[in-house]
Amino acid sequence: MQFGYVLIAILINLLVGYAIGRQIGLQEGYQRGLSFGPLKMREHTYLSGKCPICSKEN
Amino acid sequence: MKKCLIVGKPNVGKTLFMLNFAQYLHLETVNIQLIYYNGVIENKSYKITQAKELLSSVSPFKTMCLQVLEADIPMGKGKQRIQVIDSSGLTDGIHMNVEMRRAMAQTLSAIRESDIILHLFDISSLFYDSPDHGISKVDYQLAEFGQSKNGYVILANKIDLIPNKRPIVELQKLFPDHYVIPISAKTGLGFSEVSTFVRRRL
Amino acid sequence: MFVADYNMIYQLVATFLTGIIIKLLDDYMDEELPSKLLSPETRNGILPYSLIIFSLAAALNLTYTVTLFSGAYVLGMFFHMQQKLPTGLTGLQESLIILFINLLIFPFAAVLTSLLVILFIQSIDDLLDRQWDKRMGHHNLANQFGMGEMIILSAILAVLLMMLDLKKFVFVNLCFFVINKMYKRFLLS
């Protein structure tokens, strides 16, 4: 029984830590994605030779 | 092995910085791996002075691929090996030359995999005449990406060509959240700060 | 000894029958009743047969049947707490009333363990059906709160239930497994 309570306490801690960590990770990941987006689009533009919005070349 | 990528507009001094930094780290001969966009890899060995003559130039777009050299950086009592990667210059527009564009795309794809990004600016050509201070959109985008990434630093190059510190102060004002190190790739000024920064990230 | 044995068999069968009713109710609410049940010959039989099965389950073991079914009903409301229902009450209000009535009639432990075991089954079910529910637009705890969180929550519930009522935990999981298998074999093929 004692073991059960300890195990539950550990799991609850794990749950809270994981949930908080994931939320923070999602937010940070989103910000990082936002800042990387223009560079990724630029890479595609360099490769295709066309503007991604108006499709004009050079 | 940690990767240290050098990025910036064409002709800001990336290649000269790489070679002189290698010399600062006591390399006399450099083994450079040229990695082309199509996957072709060439290995070339040069003496530093020879490499500077062949690889560095006053005309832009000399570097058309990733140029990788390995160097030992002193750390504490020992040394740590790093890869210093020179890249092709990045421009805002769509360059007419396909090979050039591919080289630029290669630079951008290398950014995500790099542990340290040294973003070079030609401080001698900034803040005069043009309303955007001579800083391109790609520089701003790189700086914004750098903010979310650890190991990004701005190197204000060619300080040997400016009469006073005003352009450096202006550059720091434009990028207040970034670390700006004034350097001269030609004379070696600022290399110790760069070395310290790189060491901290290892 | 015989009484204890029969008791356990009654509990198991009651759990099984209640599980069938909960599964039917679940699919009815999601508008996903299998086509075999919706044929003209069978559709009119769903309600009367469900009530007969439920009453048989209640006769076998009233506590298990009512608390498990109430638990399923309350948890089914989880995503619709603010919804106005035909009774005029919101989902939350109905859930509280049902819980209160259960607590008046049945022991606290029985009500609690039934709620927890239904929540456990729901978590496992949602973990397994994550992709399907996402595509079809169904509410899903794993999609809402995250897969990692639901796995850890399921572990917490499992440990808690094993401490509080191992028998119920085993019976419900066994019946859940069997009912799902039978459902897929006989009704979905």
UniProtKB/TrEMBL annotation, chain A:
Domain of life: Bacteria
Protein name stated in the entry: Uncharacterized protein
Automatic annotation (TrEMBL), chain B:
An example molecular function term from Gene Ontology annotations: GTP binding
InterPro entries recorded: GTP-bd (IPR006073), P-loop_NTPase (IPR027417)
Gene3D superfamilies: P-loop containing nucleotide triphosphate hydrolases (3.40.50.300)
One Pfam family this sequence matches: MMR_HSR1
Domain G: 57-158
Domain of life per record: Bacteria
SUPFAM superfamilies xref list: P-loop containing nucleoside triphosphate hydrolases (SSF52540)
Identification of the protein by name: 50S ribosome-binding GTPase
Organism ancestry: Bacteria, Bacillati, Bacillota, Clostridia, Peptostreptococcales
From TrEMBL, chain C:
Record key words, sorted: Membrane, Transmembrane, Transmembrane helix
Name of the protein this chain belongs to: UbiA prenyltransferase family protein
Species of origin: Geosporobacter subterraneus DSM 17957
Entry's transmembrane regions: 46-76, 96-121, 141-163
Statement: the UniProt record of this protein carries the keyword Transmembrane: yes
